[in-house]
Write a structure and sequence with these properties.
The longest helix is centred in the last third of the chain and has 30 residues. This protein is an alpha+beta fold. Helix content is 49%, strand content 12%. Strands 1, 2, 3, 4, 5, 6, 7, 8 and 9 form a nine-stranded mixed sheet that branches. α1 crosses α2, α8 runs antiparallel to α9 and α11 packs across α12. The chain is globular, with a radius of gyration of 21 Å.
C-alpha cells in the first residue's frame, strides 16, 4: 500500500448555544445577570465565552478565549457576529488547536462534544457552518495546491450532491465555479473537450496568488485558497460542511476533508483527463475510501456519504437579514488562520533571533 503523508488540520465550529445550569454557575463568576438590556447582554456574551473556555479546560480540554495572549496550543472560544442570535441563544465559534491527523484526534473531538452537551443547549441555524483547514508540513507546495484545485473542481457536482440541502446552495459557502468566471468557463470547456483542458488551465498558473485568485476570488466559497498564498498561514479551507451538532457529524466532515485533500495530492489525473461528463457519488466515495484506508484514523469517523442527516432549522432569516449575514461572513476573519499565522511568525522570529545569536557567538570565537 502506497505511503501517504498525514495532513495537519484545524476545525472552526460555528454554534448557537444557550447555557445549561452547569455553565451558568461558571458564568456568574464573570458578571452574568439575566437581562435583555443591550450592554448587559454584551457582558453576558463575554461571560459565556469565558465560562465555556473554563468549563472545557476543567473538563480536560484546554481552552481559552480568542483575545487571550499566549501560544496557539489550546482550543479557542470566540464571538461570531455573523451568527443569528435570538431567544437566549448566543453565537459562538469553537476553534481547535492545530491537530495532526496521525494522532488520536477522534478522542479529542469526542471529549469536546461530551463537554458541550453537558454545558449547552444547541440550536440548529442556517447562519452556522463548519470550516476545516488542512495543510502538509505547515504549507502546501504550488503543485499540491494545483492538485487540490483539480480534484475539488472535478468532484464538485458529487460533493454538492452529498451535502445536506441547506449547504447545497448556501450563500456563504458557494460553489467556487459560481464566483469565478474563469473557472466556470474552463469547467464548461472540459465538459466538451475533456478534463485535460481544465487541468492544463490550472497548471498554467505560475504562483499561489494567481491560482488562488482564479479558484477562490472570495473567501466565501466552498474551497478557500486565500490562506495558501505567501504570507498566509498555508492552509486550504473547506467551508461547505454544515453546522455540526454532534461528535459523529464533526468527525465525519473532518474525515471527509482529510481524505479528499489526501486523495487529491496523490491522484493520477492523466487517468481522467480524457473524460467528459460529471463524476458520480460512487466515484467520490471510491476516492474518499482510497485515502481513508491509507490514513487510517478517518475510517472510524466516516459515515455513508448520503447518510448525514440534514440540519433542522428553527429560524429562517428574511432577505434583509440574509444580506446582513452575508456581508458579515465576507468580512469575518478566520480565527484559526490568524492564530496559526501569528504562531508561525513568532516561531520564525525566534529562529532568526537564535541564528543571529549563534552567528554573533561564532564571530566572537
Amino acid at each position: 500500500m502506497a505511503y501517504v503523508e498525514a495532513p495537519q488540520f484545524g476545525v472552526e465550529i460555528e454554534l448557537l448555544v444557550r447555557p445549561k445550569p452547569a455553565l451558568l454557575e461558571f458564568m456568574s463568576q464573570y458578571g452574568y445577570e439575566e437581562s435583555t438590556e443591550y450592554f448587559q447582554a454584551r457582558k453576558n456574551r463575554r461571560a459565556l465565552h469565558r465560562a465555556l473556555a473554563e468549563a472545557l479546560s476543567v473538563g480536560g480540554l484546554a481552552a481559552k478565549v480568542d483575545e487571550d495572549e499566549g501560544e496557539f496550543s489550546t482550543w479557542l472560544v470566540a464571538y461570531d457576529g455573523s451568527i443569528q442570535e435570538s431567544d437566549g441563544f448566543y453565537g459562538v465559534e469553537v476553534i481547535s488547536r492545530l491537530l495532526e491527523s496521525a494522532d488520536n484526534w477522534l478522542a479529542e473531538i469526542d471529549l469536546l462534544w461530551t463537554l458541550l452537551d453537558d454545558f449547552c443547549f444547541i440550536r440548529s441555524d442556517d447562519s452556522c457552518g463548519t470550516h476545516v483547514h488542512t495543510s502538509l508540513r505547515g504549507r502546501y507546495t504550488l503543485d499540491e495546491l494545483k492538485r487540490i484545485a483539480k480534484a475539488t473542481v472535478y468532484y464538485e457536482p458529487a460533493i454538492t450532491s452529498v451535502m445536506p440541502n441547506e449547504r447545497k446552495v448556501s450563500l456563504w459557502s458557494r460553489s467556487n465555479m459560481s464566483e469565478s468566471t474563469q473557472l466556470r468557463q474552463a469547467y464548461d470547456n472540459a465538459q466538451i473537450h475533456g478534463y485535460g483542458y481544465l487541468f492544463d488551465w490550472i497548471d498554467s498558473f505560475e504562483d499561489e496568488e494567481a491560482l488562488s485568485n482564479a479558484i477562490s476570488p472570495t473567501k466565501a466559497v466552498s474551497w478557500n485558497f486565500k490562506n495558501a498564498v505567501p504570507g498566509g498561514c498555508g492552509t486550504v479551507e473547506f467551508r461547505r460542511p454544515p453546522q455540526v451538532t454532534s461528535t459523529e457529524a464533526t468527525k465525519h466532515w473532518i474525515a471527509f476533508t482529510l481524505c479528499l485533500v489526501t486523495y487529491s495530492v496523490h491522484c493520477d489525473f492523466s487517468q481522467i483527463s480524457q473524460l467528459t461528463g460529471k463524476p458520480s457519488t460512487e466515484n467520490l466515495r471510491n476516492a474518499i475510501s482510497w485515502a481513508a484506508n491509507r490514513l487510517g484514523s478517518p475510517l472510524a469517523a466516516l459515515k455513508p456519504l448520503n447518510d448525514i442527516a440534514a440540519t433542522a432549522h428553527s429560524i429562517q432569516p428574511n432577505a434583509q437579514e440574509v444580506a446582513r449575514i452575508m456581508e458579515l461572513k465576507k468580512q469575518k476573519k478566520s480565527v484559526f488562520a490568524e492564530k496559526l499565522q501569528s504562531a508561525q511568525s513568532s516561531l520564525a522570529a525566534s529562529a532568526a533571533q537564535l541564528a543571529s545569536g549563534s552567528s554573533a557567538t561564532a564571530a566572537k570565537n
